[in-house]
Amino acid sequence: MLDREERRLVYEHAYLPEHMPDYVEAVSGAEAHLLDDYLCFERRNHLIFIGYPLKNKSHDTQKGYESACERFRPATVAIIAPEIWLPAQTYEAQPEDCYYRLNLPLASIDPEVAYMVRRADREIKVNPGSFGKEHKGLVKGFISGHRMSQEQTEIYKGIPRYMKRSSSTILLEARKEDDLVAFNIVDMGSADYAFYLFNIRSPKVSVPGASDLLFHEMVRLAQAEGKKALNLGLGIHPGVRRFKEKWGAKPFLTHASALVTRKPLE
Q1: Among candidates 175, 200, 170, 173, which has minimal Cα distance to 186?
Q2: CA-based nearest residue to 92, from 257, 256, 258
Q3: End-to-end CA separation in angstroms for the chain
Q4: Any idea what DSSP says for residue 112?
């Protein structure tokens, strides 16, 4: 469990979504701990190790991992890090990816993107909202309508818990009259970064450019709060990457992940 000073330090230096304790605890059910500049999350015999140091970028990630395993003695460990240093036969790996970052303030917008923002603005209104039954329904529909891993499914199922416990999240919703068209969830808890975490759209009410208008408003809010950048999360697949890149976002950190099954230390 993080004490008050540790929590302050984490939110001061967070630059990844996985550095946000409220987010990871809500979607994983694990408890956050800070060990020598590394965050990890422990639940029963499972450990989530975030191999991106908060302050010292030249820190020894392998040493941090070994220290965490020595302390918590987990049976399984999920690692995310810029690279996996373990022997290939000792873990299950997932495809590599990259985090995308959009530096702020935003200097300019591509003319085609600006057109889509204006077009959507004629049909829908974007305002902050509160997570409720409508939003939960869209999340359930999103889960049932997409092929996702069990881990990804649990993340989306954890959205209501996350919205309930976090005081730094903003829900931006786009409505066409009374109909909910789409919504974004952005976390403003970090000193320097805003985190674009979720974009959920209605399968029944579609407005061209709705996601662009939501994104534009998210950028405006992040700039108003003095954020230096937006972390847009992973590339995931070509469609998602194209959306992020058309706004000017660029990959800035590699992402590798692994599941390690290990014999707990005696």
Answers
A1: 170
A2: 258
A3: 23
A4: H
